[in-house]
Design a protein that fits this description.
Blueprint: H1 2-33, H2 35-53, E1 58-62, H3 65-79, E2 84-87, H4 89-92, E3 105-109, H5 116-121, E4 131-135, E5 148-153, H6 162-166, H7 173-193, H8 197-207, H9 211-216, H10 222-229, H11 231-241, H12 250-256, E6 282-284, H13 296-301, E7 302-304, H14 314-323, E8 326-330, E9 336-340, H15 341-353, H16 361-372
Parallel strand pairs: 1-2, 1-3, 3-4, 4-5, 6-7
Antiparallel strand pairs: 8-9
Helix pairs in contact: 1-7, 2-7, 3-7, 10-11
InterPro entries: SIS_dom (IPR001347), SIS_dom_sf (IPR046348)
GO biological process, one term: carbohydrate derivative metabolic process
Protein name: Piso0_002500 protein
Length: 373
């Protein structure tokens, strides 16, 4: 009996996903066929683009779930170097309206187009600030307001509305449509601002240096290269950007090794602005040191797995380049070598970024193997 209940729930999930996908499919067809939707979107993009060209910004505004959608959209725009802020209409009426300046664009997010808080706010918005409406309603109080210059219209058929699907009007399908439509508009706006995809990727890499996304684009990030060439910036940069489980920087190793090659017997090394760095931050063989001047005491602290380039994914390789200053490699004969990650970055850039022919990761691995081993 209990299992049957969960199976029924699973069927409900499947049905909900199908209805959501149908609503998305309907919106995609709408923007291929509807003159009204296409014209309104074109006007919206022109308003937003003109504001940004004149050093204005985009002010997202909504209530409830729409406010949370606006928060995500602002984050997306900022990562694409599009100036945007989030404004709550209730807070705006208590002083936050000061964030809106001449030249800005106000973007209202409301499925119904009749949200009272937005209607109360609009009379207090400077007449010089145009408003764009993201909505699921073609006709509404806000859509007919003279200060609302255009719509980003996400049509939601009655049979696919939340009330029809769930029996309650909880914002789900409408927020999905609003978010998807706004995301599409933001990406289009990004291309209008900069048509060169390589320049957009480079800019994005500098706005999004963290996580696997940042690792995948680290070879484009000038800020990382700046840190490599400025020793005074390395300690502060890596102490704030890299977790304690990453490799020690080459600068820290050099500071820890004295002129006669001896190393502090403590289990961790001092950094510029942290008292200690956690033990075992590298996985390394505890074999006697070679001519590189890495003392055996230090080697025990730096424990590092042997890296096999033929088994390394491109994402893993780029993560190494982002997180680490150098790699300590154990060769088959038991000797070790230190490889500067900035050298690997140069190699990668030379092969992929500046290579005009076709180049695959597999072919690069062969070159990498010769370089590392």
């Amino acid at each position: 009996m209990e299992a049957k209940k969960y199976l029924e729930g699973l069927e409900y999930v499947s049905r909900t996903l199908f209805n959501q996908s149908q609503a998305m499919k309907n919106m995609a067809e709408q923007y291929r066929e509807s003159t009204f939707a296409r014209d309104q979107m074109a006007i919206s993009l022109s308003i937003l683009h003109r504001s940004l060209k004149e050093q204005g910004k985009i002010v997202m505004c909504g209530v409830g779930k729409s406010h949370k959608v606006g928060n995500k959209l602002v984050a997306t725009m900022n990562s694409l170097s599009i100036q945007a802020v989030l404004l709550h209409p209730s807070e705006a009426l208590h002083g936050d309206l000061g964030i809106v300046r001449d030249g800005d664009v106000l973007v209202f997010i409301t499925a119904s187009g009749n949200t009272p808080e937005l209607l109360q706010l609009l009379p207090h918005v400077p007449p010089s600030v145009p408003a764009v409406l993201i909505t699921c309603s073609k006709t509404s109080k806000l859509s007919s307001h003279p200060q609302v210059k255009s719509l980003m219209y996400a049509e939601l058929p009655a049979h696919l509305s939340e009330d029809s699907i769930h029996g309650i009007p909880a914002p789900t399908v409408s927020t999905t449509l609003s978010l998807a439509l706004a995301d599409a508009a933001i990406l289009a706006l990004s291309e209008l601002i900069e048509s060169d995809v390589h320049k957009r990727r480079k800019e994005f890499s500098m706005r999004h240096p963290g996580g696997s996304i940042g690792a995948g684009l680290s070879h484009l990030n000038d800020n990382l290269r700046l840190v490599e060439t400025d020793p005074s910036a390395q300690g502060k940069f890596f102490s704030s950007q890299v977790s304690s489980s990453s490799l020690l920087s080459l600068t820290q190793i050099q500071k820890s090794v004295t002129n006669n090659g001896s190393v502090s017997n403590s289990g961790s090394l001092d950094s510029d602005d942290e008292p200690t760095i956690e033990k075992n931050v590298l996985q390394c063989s505890k074999q006697p040191p070679n001519s590189l001047g890495i003392d055996s005491t230090l080697t025990k602290t730096l424990t590092m797995n042997q890296i096999n380039p033929t088994d390394m994914s491109e994402l893993c390789f780029l993560k190494y380049l982002t997180l680490y200053d150098y790699l300590v490699l154990e060769k088959e004969d038991g000797s070790k070598s230190v490889v500067r990650c900035n050298m690997l970055k140069t190699l990668y850039k030379a092969e992929f970024e500046n290579f005009t022919g076709s180049r695959t990761w597999e072919s690069f691995l062969l070159l990498l193997k010769d370089y590392l081993i």
